[in-house]
Amino acid sequence: MKKNIVLIGMPGSGKSTIGVLLAKAINYQFIDGDLLIQRQEKKTLVDIINEKGIDAFLAIENQVLREINTEASVIATGGSAIFSEEAMKHLGEQGLIVYLDVSCEEIIRRVNNISTRGIAMKPGKTLADLYEERKPYYEKYAQLTIPCDGKTMEQCVQAIALSVDNPVRMC
After folding, report:
1. Contact assessment for residue 153 and residue 143, using Cβ atoms and an 8 Å cutoff
2. Which pLDDT score is estimated for 171?
3. Within 10 A of 123 (CB to CB), how many other CB atoms are there?
4. 0.85 exceeded by pTM
5. Which of 3, 45, 88, 158 would bridge with 71, disulfide CB 3.0–4.6 Å?
6. CA dist 7 to 11, 27, 65, 86, 155, Å?
7. Confidence band, pLDDT 50/70/90 cuts, at residue 166
8. Each residue's pLDDT tens digit, 126-146
9. 77-90 burial by CB neighbour count: b if 16+ within 10 A, else e?
């Protein structure tokens, strides 16, 4: 097994929630890329995007993710991490990149706070547009894809753990 498990996927795919549960289940630490960005910038994601713009946000995200050097961690990236080839290469060297594959319909159902969530999305774009734009990148970088539609968070955690040869017992 590689040192870390790196979760990628759309906003609302469950990266942070599944990441915390997975880390607890396999005794890894949990790192949230979005929280690292907020801590560094001392602002929320939405404030960074609104004040500095999407390109500046993506540059900050790239820099923060490239600086992660850890072992035995579950790392939840932001949904836009896949736009940084440098960061994704670095994370792939640090661990196994796992794509949490959730359908567009399910993402739209789950994400109802677009304006306050801090999603790197150009004005006038919809979640469906974002999904179509990002899906090929998630598939490109994924070393393991976990289909999550119709599954509980615990079932997704179990699927990841079994796939990385680290079975867990879920209550």
Report:
1. no
2. 41
3. 5
4. yes
5. 3
6. 12, 16, 12, 16, 15
7. low
8. 899 999 999 999 999 999 999
9. bbbbbbbbeebbeb
How far apart are the C-alpha atoms of 145 and 123, rounded to whole Å?
30
Q: Which residues lie closer than 8 Å to 99 by C-beta, 6 or more apart?
A: 8, 9, 138, 139, 141, 142, 144, 145, 146
For residue 157, pLDDT beyond 50: yes
Q: Are 51 and 43 in contact (CB under 8 A)?
A: yes
Q: Are 147 and 100 in contact (CB under 8 A)?
A: no
**92 neighbors 66 (Cβ within 8 angstroms):** no
Residue with tokens 């979640």: 127
Written as six digits, the tokens of 46 are 């939405």
d(CA 96, CA 6): 6
Residue 144 contacts residue 10 (beta carbons within 8 Å): no
Query: Which residue's entry shows tokens 């896949």?
Result: 82
Query: What tokens does 157 get?
Result: 């955690």
* Residue 83 phi, psi dihedral angles, 5° rounding: -85, -5
